[in-house]
Amino acid sequence: MRRRLMTTVFAATTLIVVALVLPLALLLRGQAENRAMAEATLQAQALAPVVGTYDDSPDGVRLAVQRLGGSPDRIVTVFLPGGRTLGTDAPVDDAVRLARRGEAFEAEYDSGKAVLVPVQGIRSGTAVIRVDVPDQALHSGVKSAWLVLALVSVILLAVGMLLADRLGRSLVASVANVAETADRLARGDLDARAAPQGPPEVRRVGEELGKLAGRVSKLITDEREEVADLSHRLRTPITALRLDVEALPAGEDKDRIAGDVDAVETMVNDVIATARRGARDRAVDGADLAAAARERLEFWRPLAEDQGRTITDRIGSDAVMVPISPDNLDVALDALIGNVFQHTDEHVGFGMAVSTNRSGHPVLTVWDDGAGFSGPGVLDRGVSYDRSSGLGLDIVKRTAVDCGGHVIIGKSTSGGARIDVVLGGDMPGRGAGTKAEAGGGSGGDFDSGARPR
């Protein structure tokens, strides 16, 4: 913007200067010529009465001509009747012959201009006074005036460019301020506001951007509070469930159910706290993907054994740190494993692996030996083909995207479903959640560039 403004101002100022200076330069040249010719005319008219007395005083006329015609800027020649001349010697030409008819005028020559004045009263005929003005005398002082005009033009251009630069700086600064505020808002800083500066239009944009940010912040706050309120309503049925558990006879089943109720209550409290805290206030220190995967796999192992499912564990013992909070990572792992139990029959095996791809980013792979995915768009929020909420894989995808990763779905070697969750790195060219038809393994092959740890 700044460069365009300076270019526009330079072009406009140049046109204005040329439009003013060029006619003024021509006018100065014409005035110089007119001034020189006027002085030559006065000189010729002053000499005419003296030349008229030539019959009475030829020596006086000759002396007067020598004194008046001694300047190199005014060359005086008197053409007497009979072909004689006084002053600077010059031949008789057509202009002199025309002047002898009694007409005074100006004539142009190759070396400049001349004023011709006829003088009558001499007994032998009409004399002609010619005052020649060379080009140098005609344009005396014109070059100096043109240099002054050129200097003034340069100063005007410089002042115009300086003003354009100042204006461009102010415009660019105000627009940059609004752009920086928009970037901060895009990064999640909803408290960012643009400083009121610049022209009215830019200030208006900044004000509207602030209003938009305030509106978005209020909508997010309202939604967060609504989620917290909905979660809070779950405490009543949880309390009733706890009372029912307390009524059970003492034993292993009572302790197990009581532990599950405690886990549900803890999860509800976490949802309430997380919803009211907001994403910007959540500190993310990172988590060990391998340790979390082993822990969640062990959590689900008793249910798998009850349903006769075989579990393939290819997680490894090395720590794999990912930039995700432990709670969010556990939720994503539970969503992946829970999908296997919800969408496959009993006795269908599944597995989990932790690896890295060719770029060195951690990859979590979950596969099963079921029938595979029921249809397209399973990564889209709310899409389900089995009467479920359709939120499980969307939670996994958002967890991956939040740390710069993506999710790839495909088929395992047994024909079941396979999900590769890349945690970190750039989004692939085909987009997050793109279905990959290339087969993976039931943990054996990592064809997407991943390798077991």
TrEMBL record:
Residues 428-453 are annotated as: Disordered. CDD domains: HisKA. The keyword Ribosomal protein does not apply. One of its GO terms (molecular function) is ATP binding. Pfam families: HAMP (PF00672), HATPase_c (PF02518), HisKA (PF00512). Residues 428-446 have a biased composition (Gly residues). Its EC number is 2.7.13.3. It is found in: Cell membrane. The keyword Repressor does not apply. It catalyses: ATP + protein L-histidine = ADP + protein N-phospho-L-histidine. GO terms for cellular component: plasma membrane. Coiled coil: none annotated. Residues 229-427 form the Histidine kinase domain. Residues 169-221 form the HAMP domain. It is an enzyme of class 2 (transferase). It is a multi-pass membrane protein. Keywords: ATP-binding, Cell membrane, Kinase, Membrane, Nucleotide-binding, Phosphoprotein, Transferase, Transmembrane, Transmembrane helix, Two-component regulatory system. The chain crosses the membrane at residues 145-164. PANTHER family: SENSOR PROTEIN CREC. This is histidine kinase. It comes from Spelaeicoccus albus. The lineage of its organism: Bacteria, Bacillati, Actinomycetota, Actinomycetes, Micrococcales.
